[in-house]
Amino acid sequence: MQKKSTVIISLAIFAAILIVVNMISSKLYFRLDFTDDQRYTLSRATNDVLTDLEDIVTVKAYFSEDLPAQLLSNRQDFEDLLIEYENRSGGNLVYEFISPNEEEEVEQEAQQSGIQPVIINVSEKDQVQQLKAYMGAVLMIGDQQEVIPVIQPGVDMEYGLTTAIKKLAVLDKPKVALIQGHGEPSMQEVAQLYQQLSVLYQFEPLDLNTAIDISTDYKSIVIMNPIDTIPQGHFNKIDQYLASGGSAYVAYSNVNGDLSVGQLSPSNDIGMTGWLASKGVNVGNQFVIDSQSGSVTVQQQQGFISYRSQVKFPYFPIVNSFPDHPVTKGLETIMLPFVSAITFSPSDTATSFTPLMTTSELSGIDFTPRLDIERQWTKNDFVQGPQNMAVAIEGHAVGSTNSKLIVVANGAFAVNGNPPQQINQDNVNFVSNSVDWLSDDTGLIDLRTKGITSRPLEQLEDGTREMLKYGNVAFPIVLVFIYAFIRRQLYLRKKQNWMEGKF
């Protein structure tokens, strides 16, 4: 009888402990983050945005209740993030979850707010069914609202949520100019870049043919892929802006490659190389080649059979190793098609020069007028070593002690074109990060590239790749055997104690 009462008391104490722990955990919420990019740890930028909130931000999260198992974690991750935001904001952020599938009126409300359903294929009992699911959110401050149409599974949510809050909270956005007048791409032709920058900046075109000068109201200017001659008067306007403490991003191609006709050639002199040289930046007129490169599709013939295949193309260097710099933090992979090398000859010892994109050790310089896609490359073609393709310069040589300049030896690597084509997201992230850094850093530069975007196994050494491959199979099995061995030893010890009369 005593043993029974002891068990009841123990169970009651255990239940009480669980209740107390549950009550405490509802007030004190925290997570341990062991991810490589700390994707579950709120950044300094997010903390600053939440701390500075003066109005209440209301988040309506429209999530279907009957999500398949693989998407339930997406809902839970978003709710966990909102709990942290609520705690860090001191109560200035509130949220609610709404299931649009339950009532037609609520579903119409979600769609009118900009949340459209996502059609998901679900396998049940050997049958594939289509499910209409909602996974979006609407953020509101007063009459203003921002919409996150889809909370993408497996994608870091902090950047989208924080920038949406900041966009609502900030009334006067800093201005950034996209220089026009020399054949540069229009706003429509840099759609991905505009979409990113317009969240935090007033990103607008500025035609130097009509502008008297470049106003110091602009935090920075962007010069992308000019192809027509730039008059000296326009360079004077840029120099005056830089001398007043302004900063500039310049992406310029001094070489051209045309796959359709198999032609390689230097660009026409539009005055840009001379102007950059006055800043100590020398852009070459030969092509960089790299054994670590992208591929092109070629038509090949074998007997009567014609087929397409991917061929490594050294004129398309791939960069996946970046320096520790705010512009490149978090970037994974960038490809620069038809690019030349950059060197620096400073005229001022106080000016700093930082390479931002560099080729691999097996790289070189090449100029062959005729382009042979099926050329057989050897190690002897890549003996010049790493080549700089993008650089950051700070100091008086740019214009003033506070001026900054970023130069990329390829003008079109972040241009969508007309008609627009989707481009590698990290190409756009590089330009957006550059604008953030040039514009005194909004604090969200780390968030934009938070999350692993590309970790291809083929770039690992064979031994490392094999170890990861078989380790993923063997490690869980080893853990099971270790657990079974420990359980077996505990059982044998318990059995031995029982036989010896020890309880």
Give a structural overview.
- The structure is a single chain.
- The protein is an alpha/beta fold.
- It is globular, with a radius of gyration of 29 Å.
- The mean pLDDT is 84.
- Helix 2 (44-51) packs parallel to helix 5 (158-169) and helix 6 (191-197) crosses helix 9.
- The two termini are 19 Å apart.
- Strand 15 (293-302) and strand 16 (305-319) form a beta hairpin.
- The protein has 4 domains: 1-30; 43-169, Glutaredoxin, CATH 3.40.30; 175-458, 3-Layer(aba) Sandwich (Rossmann fold), CATH 3.40.50.880; 462-499.
- The protein is built from 11 helices and 22 strands.
- It has a 7-stranded mixed sheet, with helices on one face.
Q: What count of structural domains?
A: 4
The largest sheet has its strands arranged as: 8-7-9-10-22-21-19
- Low-pLDDT segments: none
CATH class of the largest domain: Alpha Beta
- CA-atom Rg in angstroms: 29 Å
Offer a concise description of the structure.
The chain has helices spanning 2-27, 44-51, 69-88, 104-112, 158-169, 191-197, 232-243, 272-277, 425-438, 445-448, 462-499, and strands spanning 57-63, 93-98, 118-124, 127-133, 135-141, 144-148, 175-180, 202-207, 218-224, 248-251, 255-258, 263-266, 281-283, 287-290, 293-302, 305-319, 334-335, 342-344, 352-358, 363-366, 388-394, 404-408. The chain has 503 residues and is α/β, with parallel strands linked by helices.
